[in-house]
Amino acid sequence: MGVACRMVANLFEFLFVMMIPTGVLIYTLSFSRWMGGKGLKVGSSSVMIMGICSYVATGWVVWNLLT
Amino acid sequence: MAKKDKEAQVGTKELISMLTLFVASDIFLSYPSLTAKRGLEAGWMMSIVSGIVAMAVFLFVNWMLHRTYPGQDLIDVTRNSMGQIAGLIVSVIVGLYLLMLTAAILREFMENIISTVLPNTPILVVAGLFGITVCYIAQCGLEGICRTAVIIWPVLLTGLILLFLATSNRWSPTWLLPIWGSGFWPVVQGGVLYSSLFTNVLLICLIYPHAHRPEELTKVGVWSIVLTDTVMTLFIVVFNMIFPAVEGRNISFPFYEMARIIYLGRFFQRLESIFIFIWVAIAIIRVSMTLWASAYAFSRGFKWPTFKPGVPVLALASFTLSLVPKSAAQVTQWTQAYLLEWGNLVVYGLPILIVLVAAWAKRSGGGKGRQRAKKAGRSAEQGHRDGGGLQDGRQPV
């Protein structure tokens, strides 16, 4: 029971911490779409890859830090 | 004010202030203890050797750039002489190096704050607040950072003079003896090895076209290296006079420890809380600059229309990378091994290689390379005449 409660608390803490990274991801993806619309394929895909990689890495590091 | 100054994006004074603060901020981090570790009593000589190396490399690269590709930065030169792919690779290498540097400084700063002034605050909170501030300043661009640096530079100077005077009752000049410390060659070797500290050489090559008066960039480079070296050498001399080399090499936060031992009587003691403001302000400028430069390098490489959207994502990446080392000791170890010692390859090796290859390509290739260089040079001059600093679709800074 105690372990489950701790897991749920960690999950909420994790979701709270990930609010800013999620905002950054949305911002980056919107920029990527904007560049795609301008025909800048390399720029668009590089930003998208960078945004997704940063988001996943942040999630992994924060989860390890909290649990 | 001269017409040129009105049109200026970043003036000479601003650039000198920013570049000086950028490198001199290392005295707040682990650099003084690294010099004490390697050079013992002669640690201060290592910073002089590093300064000489930085000056020699800067003057050579600057001269070659002026001579072969006037008005162009390192990435333009790479593109014009070696092609688009080489330009992309150079941008990514420089961007990644600056990103790692941002992460390392961020973590060292966080460790400083947590272990000294905010021991009960979670590292995520300190990192988050610091990251947001830095992200905001970097978003303002080179001009914003340089103007902030102009305001902060006198504060740093006053703070350092006050710190030196307030600790003068604890100086022991005999602790600087024997004069050669660990020996002549170990000191020279250490100075050369840690000379990548002067990242301003790389930065100048990167921001070349964005100075309003490119003809004064030699002055900017020389003055920033001389001022930084003077500040760092004086600091290390005072540090070694307060803490003997054997003790100094184990001190992680030299500036804080020096401020902490101030004792000028019962009512004037332990004034570290005053110096923390200086410490934080300079750390913010330093990290903002590396973050901006990283975003700028990536934007040039991948041809983004503006560097701005790269700033939040790179701030997030540096935040994540900064949390990867398990302890403060590991951060210092990684910084010393990978960013300082191997960093020479990026900070000095890359610019030297590029200008040499570019000069060779221009000489042997003749027509096409020269035409492209002339065209780029003309467009850069035109951009400066128009006052915008915008050329070949490059973004404003």
Description:
The complex is a heterodimer of chains A (67) and B (397). Chain A is built from three helices and no strands. Chain A has helices at 2-17, 19-37, 41-66. Chain A is elongated, with a radius of gyration of 16 Å. The mean pLDDT of chain A is 87. Chain B has 397 residues and is mostly helical. Chain B has 18 helices and no strands. In chain B, α2 (12-24) crosses α14 (272-302). The two termini of chain B are 22 Å apart. The A-B interface holds A 17, 20-21, 24, 27-28, 31, 35, 38, 40, 42-43, 46-47, 50-51, 53-55, 57-58, 61-62, 65 and B 123-124, 128, 132, 298, 302-305, 309-310, 312-317, 319-321, 323-324.
Would you spell out the secondary-structure blueprint of this structure?
The complex is a heterodimer of chains A (67) and B (397).
Chain A: H1 2-17, H2 19-37, H3 41-66
Helix pairs in contact in A: 1-3, 2-3
Chain B: H1 3-7, H2 12-24, H3 31-39, H4 43-68, H5 74-82, H6 84-116, H7 123-139, H8 141-166, H9 184-193, H10 200-206, H11 217-242, H12 245-248, H13 254-260, H14 272-302, H15 310-322, H16 328-341, H17 343-365, H18 367-386
Based on CA atoms alone, the radius of gyration of chain B comes out at 21 Å
The gross shape of chain A turns out to be elongated
Major sheet size, sense and barrel closure of chain B? none
Largest sheet, strands/sense/barrel of chain A: none
Order of helices and strands of chain B: HHHHHHHHHHHHHHHHHH
The overall average pLDDT of chain A, rounded, is 87
How many strands of chain A?
A: 0
Secondary-structure-derived class of chain B: mainly alpha
Q: Please count the beta strands of chain B (DSSP E, at least 2 residues each).
A: 0
Would you tell me the structural class of the helices and strands of chain A?
Answer: mainly alpha
Mean pLDDT of chain B: 81
Please state roughly what percent of the residues of chain A sit in beta strands, choosing from under 5%, 5-15%, 15-25%, 25-35%, 35-45% or over 45%: under 5%
**Helix amount of chain B, in percent?**
over 70%
Shape descriptor of chain B reads globular
Distinct helical segment count of chain B = 18
Query: Terminal Cα separation of chain A, in Å?
Result: 16 Å
Q: CA-to-CA gap between the ends of chain B?
A: 22 Å
Strand content of chain B: under 5%
> What low-confidence regions of chain A span 5 or more consecutive residues with pLDDT below 50?
none
N-to-C SSE string of chain A, H for helix and E for strand: HHH
